[in-house]
Amino acid sequence: xxxxxxxxxxxxxxxxxxxxxxxRNDRVRSARDYQTIQxxxxxxxxxxxxxxxxxVFCADVKRxxxxxxxxxxxxxxxxxxxxxxxxxxTPDGNHKEVELSCTTKWxxxxxxxxxxxxxxxxxxxxTPPGLRVLELWGLDGGAVELPESALAQFAQEADPLxxxxxxxxxxxxxxAESVGMDEVxxxxxxxxxxxxxxxxxxxxxxxxxxxxLPIDRKRPSALSFxxxxxxxxxxxxxxxxxxxxxxxxxxxxxxxxxxxxxxSVITRERRLFLREPEILAKIxxxxxxxxxxxxxxxxxxxxxxxxxxLTLGEVELDHTRPLAYLWPIDEHAxxxxxxxxxxxxxxxxxxxxxxxxxxxxxxxxxxPRDALVAKKVxxxxxxxxxxxxxxxxxxxxxxxxxxxxRKVRELRNDVDLFDxxxxxxxxxxxxxxxxxxxxxxxx
Length: 443
Description:
Layout: H1 14-21, E1 38-41, E2 43-47, E3 53-61, E4 69-78, E5 82-89, E6 95-102, E7 107-114, E8 119-127, E9 133-143, H2 148-156, E10 182-183, E11 191-193, E12 200-205, E13 212-214, H3 240-251, H4 257-273, H5 291-298, E14 316-318, E15 334-336, H6 338-344, H7 355-365, H8 369-373, H9 379-387, H10 389-395, H11 398-411, H12 417-424, H13 426-438
Antiparallel strand pairs: 1-12, 2-9, 2-11, 3-8, 3-10, 4-7, 4-9, 5-6, 5-8, 12-13, 14-15
């Protein structure tokens, strides 16, 4: 792991100083180099585009981590869109395989499997016909060693190490080189290093774990750091994994109502969209109010539907346009009491409010009246799901996939997510159907 020169001593921003004063098991060890962006060179592999290629890497696991898992991961992109088969094999033969959507933009990937044995682990990447070049950066593998502050939360979650919105940084591998695993020469019959097909990737240092990890200046939450327009780099100081393990999960008991609501929104939308909410960091006024406080004040501290006065703790923010139809939380949220929010639930405004109330809601939220009376699926989010349908099928609970497919089909009879999945991967489609059939009928 790359560490800052401790002789220089930590130089902390105001917000980091405030965090450092709170009780924690680990310390921030960083100078201001975490506020700069650097470039790293990827490694390109020229592939057999006629038949596809198999690239195999290995690493010698010489010690066990504190999780009982062995993992591998990194960042990749191709010269065209393609579906990759990625498989990790532990020294004792345990394995895990996923299908990954590769695009012409850098994206992270990672896999972790339980293993109590030392020895040689392997990572296999199978590319399909048509893909000519695959680029890698930060490829690494070994025992998964989590920070002490992460272990308690790690034990409570089903499989946090294989969550696509946090991999590979949540494995806490070094990612210090373009390719940090050894090549298995015997399997390189159809892939070769191609220096002319290696491009740059932008990285910055995490203020906590001190690793240099990738950022994407154009796409929010696409790589290892969330966007933060107030920072010099345009990204948060902490990588996504440290933000979760060492800040959010550590400081929840000390948070304000706004911060707790934000955490709840993040958890809910992360499960549906498999990424962090994009809007929350942008919706903060100069007094530090979060979305809940801002909407509460905008609605004159009253429930919009029944006009009952509310304390901030009594406020329940409604998405206005339902999350069930893929509308994430945003600045157009509605302030409701618990009873009225129970009535509104997954319904559109036009199904709940009178024409006069619709006009009033448009004036308060800033949403056009046409948007409030329309009953539509969010096309932007739907396109994201369709483009990476296999990942959503694997990571969603089967009931979530079924419910979302039903909601989409209700308003978009031209889109059947089950059919999209079947065409993308018959095997994953069959697995999903089997998981749905195993559910008790009463669920």
